[in-house]
């Protein structure tokens, strides 16, 4: 069981990302994102049990987002993380608020407890579109990503702490508008 600290889009603007999930799903053997039963999100940190303390992680998230209002994020590119399977993701425009929240979390919880890709210096803000691109569809998926020429704005309006798999929301707070 793992623990993640996220900001998610729990409103109609998330539909743009969810439509991209469906487009990316054609490159996967099984659609990965709809299967989560969880809305589009950006993850700040993932901790593996037993290092994960739900209450401490939630307290840190609350402190890191104290006074934070809803966050409108623009996505103009689709990128990928190399590997097998290939992972496609929407790249957010640079946003100092995301960086500030991530830094506050990393300062409060020793990054050594965090998965390596979410540690300071390694973290890449991203909104995952598909986690299981089939090897035989890899080139098609990368071509899809390179051809993306849209501009999507998503309103991230909830911060939360979840356990997974499967995704179970431990605590959440709606951000003020």
Secondary-structure blueprint:
Blueprint: E1 2-8, H1 15-25, E2 41-48, H2 54-64, E3 71-81, E4 86-92, H3 96-108, E5 127-133, H4 138-147, E6 152-156, E7 158-164, E8 168-174
Antiparallel strand pairs: 1-2, 1-7, 3-4, 3-6, 4-5, 7-8
Helix pairs in contact: 2-3
Keywords: Ligase
Protein name: 2'-5' RNA ligase family protein
GO molecular function, one term: ligase activity
Could you explain how this protein is built, in words?
- This protein has 177 residues and is α+β, with helices and mostly antiparallel strands.
- It has a single domain (2-174), classed as Cyclic phosphodiesterase (Cyclic Phosphodiesterase, Chain: A, Alpha-Beta Complex), CATH 3.90.1140.10.
- It is 25% helix and 33% strand.
- It is built from four helices and eight strands; from the N terminus they run E-H-E-H-E-E-H-E-H-E-E-E.
- The protein has helices at residues 15-25, 54-64, 96-108, 138-147; strands spanning 2-8, 41-48, 71-81, 86-92, 127-133, 152-156, 158-164, 168-174.
- The strands form two sheets. The protein has a four-stranded antiparallel β-sheet with strand order 2-1-7-8, with helices on one face. A four-stranded antiparallel β-sheet has the order 5-4-3-6.
- Strand 3 and strand 4 form a beta hairpin.
- Helix 2 packs antiparallel against helix 3 (96-108).
- The radius of gyration is 16 Å and the shape is globular.
- The chain starts with a strand and ends with a strand.
